[in-house]
Automatic annotation (TrEMBL):
Pfam families: DoxX
UniProt protein name: DoxX family protein
Record key words, sorted: Cell membrane, Membrane, Transmembrane, Transmembrane helix
Coiled coil spans: none
Compartment(s) of residence: Cell membrane
InterPro entries according to UniProt: DoxX (IPR032808), DoxX-like_oxidoreductase (IPR051907)
Transmembrane domains' residue ranges: 7-25, 45-67, 74-99, 105-130
A cellular component annotation (GO) from this entry: plasma membrane
Main subcellular localisation: membrane
Similarity comment text for this entry: Belongs to the DoxX family.
Top-level taxon of origin: Bacteria
Position of the signal peptide: none
Length: 145
């Protein structure tokens, strides 16, 4: 992968991860679980008392993993589902614009996650380091056999 693609992928991962972390953190520290649970309940989300902290944990942990480029495709897949559910339960009926609680932010975050599912974290990631290490181990095992 070219250097410009690596730089772009890294910057996109960091921005996407920071936004996910911020939204997860909001659920615990700013709006708070009580407020988020009440909002989820008003939307008819099943088990809102469980779903609210789960969404927060998914967004914080997923954001950290995306920034690090660790287990990126798995983290991105979970975050994509998180954003799909947010879109369907909370935003789709309000149109597109985020100023009206529309789906644009959840859609863009979901699209970013989808790109990471398809393209991976890039060469500047923990995933790439682990892949190189595993490839070396497989080569050594094959030579010994």
């Amino acid at each position: 992968m070219s250097t410009i693609k690596q730089i772009a992928t890294l910057i996109a991962r960091v921005i996407l991860g920071v936004v996910f972390i911020a939204h997860g953190w909001d659920k615990f520290a700013i709006t708070g679980l009580e407020g988020v649970t009440g909002y989820f309940d008003s939307l008819g989300i099943p088990a809102a008392g469980f779903a609210a902290p789960l969404a927060g944990v998914i967004e914080i942990v997923g954001g950290i993993l995306i920034i690090a480029g660790a287990f990126t495709r798995i983290a991105a897949a979970v975050l994509f589902v998180d954003m799909l559910l947010a879109t369907l339960f909370a935003h789709i009926s309000s149109g597109i614009f985020v100023t009206n609680n529309g789906w644009e932010l959840a859609g863009v975050l979901g699209a970013g996650a989808l790109l990471l599912i398809a393209g991976g974290a890039g060469s500047w990631s923990i995933d790439a380091i682990l892949a190189k290490r595993n490839a070396g181990a497989n080569t050594r095992a094959t030579v010994k056999a």
